[in-house]
Specification:
This protein is of the alpha/beta class. It is built from eleven helices and 30 strands. It has a six-stranded antiparallel β-sheet, with no helix packed on it. It is globular and about 75 Å long.
């Protein structure tokens, strides 16, 4: 359905974050919103499904271009077709992203309502959330810019707060905003919670697209101007809309809170008790998790002996912990994090050091996702690399060649269709082929079953940027690694 249909609300899902505080599971190329951290579905899928139903139009997603194929596939797998997936050339915070969405929706309908929400938050009471959205929509139709404020359950110093003012006379359950307050110290947070008028700022907003653009013109006109240019000069790429990089880069990098909400005279808030969390750290997952008698939360192959208050997760091998307390231990295929549970907010400092050292573990997960499937590095040494490659049914890698490496392919599961120079042929399990340096080649899965191969690379340079694409069904640029 189009968002211009009477009464419908368009969810605008923001999916640009990298979730560095949840490293090593969350990384820039596969961040937390694309993972199943609190259930069977990914956080993006849960958010999109929460905002699906008769009151909502098809969602719009604003995201990092590196994630576009994964996002499209994840939404498709839960039966959702977004009306648009907008690709940001670079992250410029929430105000420019909201501007692009508002400009797009206003073209469909001058009265279009948009609900702006992060794609990596958890809401436990969906019924209460929908009721808050209905109240917020009533206020938005009267020209208010509405925040959904969360009833605080503790004196949290990691969130911003909204001080609610008097009731809106025309909308029961909605209030004027007295002020927004940034993250407070502990004593101030305790005072806020005890007052009964302060709410957590969950950064969930609902307003008419036209109202937001009017206020943006007053308080941050450069954002509106550059967003309009970026949208006008943008290009279509398959199911994606690429914003113009030069124009979008000129948008000030600023949140919607700073740019508009803290300055407008049209701000309103709807209090909601919805079981909300931004799942911003491992300690938050410990708080939410099912604990044993000693207060430990375990995920994966984990053994704890004489330990208390720990959060331990293993994505692969056995992790055994003896006599430890209040630790976070996270083990992935290529990295292990050990941290005091009350220091997990500082995990970003570890990631920053890895980035400065040029370590791929900072941004690239052990399993790397591509539009055709995924690969995982099993061994890496000077001059050689071994990968497990999985190709989805009906998918194909690009036709490509390499300047500095040769490749040996062994089919493990399924049937591979191989293009090798001027020849093409099928390989089944236990069969293999060799790709010399410089030879054009393609790996394809023409069946309806998964294909897995072992790839052995040998050469003087083994980086992903030694891929020269000759043809690609996903229209990736020659230098793009996504």
């Amino acid at each position: 359905m189009m968002s211009g249909a009477k009464g419908l609300i368009t969810p605008v899902l923001l999916s640009g974050g990298s979730g560095t505080r949840l490293w090593p599971v969350s990384r820039a190329l596969h961040p937390k919103q694309l993972q199943a951290l609190v259930g069977e579905r990914t956080m993006l899928q849960e958010t999109a499904l929460r905002l699906a139903g008769p009151e909502f139009a098809a969602p719009m997603v604003v995201c990092n271009g590196d994630h576009r194929f994964t996002i499209a596939a994840q939404l498709q797998s839960v039966g959702l077709t977004p009306q648009s997936i907008v690709l940001e050339p670079q992250g410029r915070n929430t105000a420019p992203a909201a501007a692009v969405a508002a400009l797009t929706l206003r073209q469909q309908s001058p009265d279009a309502l948009m609900l702006l929400a992060a794609s990596d938050h958890v809401i436990e009471d969906v019924g209460a959330f929908h009721e808050a959205v209905r109240i917020a929509a009533d206020a938005a139709r009267q020209g208010y810019l509405v925040s959904i404020g969360v009833m605080p359950t503790r004196p949290e110093t990691g969130y911003g707060y909204i001080d609610r003012g008097p009731d809106l006379p025309s909308v029961r359950g909605a209030f004027a905003v007295k002020r927004f307050v940034e993250k407070p110290d502990r004593a101030t947070a305790e005072r806020f919670v005890s007052s009964g008028t302060f709410l957590w700022n969950a950064s969930i907003f609902l307003f008419r697209a036209s109202t937001y653009l009017e206020e943006l013109e007053k308080y941050a006109p450069d954002i509106r101007t550059q967003a309009e240019i970026a949208l006008k000069l943008g290009t279509r790429d398959l199911d994606f809309l690429r914003l113009d990089p030069a124009a979008f880069a000129k948008c000030p990098s600023i949140s919607i809170d700073y740019a508009v909400m803290e300055r407008t005279g049209r701000a309103a808030v709807v209090p909601a008790d919805i079981g909300w969390s931004d799942v911003g750290s491992w300690s938050m997952l410990w708080e939410r998790g099912a604990k044993d008698a000693d207060g430990n939360v375990k995920t994966g192959d984990v053994l704890i002996e004489d330990g208390k208050g720990n959060f331990i997760r293993s994505d692969s091998r056995l992790v055994a912990a003896l006599g430890v307390e209040n630790l976070v231990i996270i083990a992935t295929n290529d990295a292990v994090l050990v941290a005091a549970r009350d220091r997990d907010q500082d995990v970003k400092r570890v990631v920053d050091r890895l980035i400065k050292a040029g370590r791929t573990e900072a941004s690239q997960p052990a399993r790397v996702y591509r539009p055709w499937g995924s690969f995982e590095t099993l061994h890496l040494a000077a001059g050689s690399q071994v990968k497990l490659i999985e190709v989805n049914p009906g998918a194909a890698l690009s036709l490509q060649y390499h300047h500095k490496r040769a490749e040996h392919w062994v089919v493990v599961v399924g049937e591979a269709w191989i293009t090798r120079g001027d020849t093409a042929f099928a390989l089944k399990a236990n069969e293999s082929t060799f790709i010399p340096i410089g030879m054009p080649h393609r790996l394809e899965n023409r069946t309806d079953e998964p294909l897995r191969i072992i790839e052995v690379q040998v050469g003087s340079y083994l980086g992903e940027d030694d891929i020269v694409r000759l043809e690609d069904r996903y229209r990736r640029t020659p230098n793009e690694q996504a």
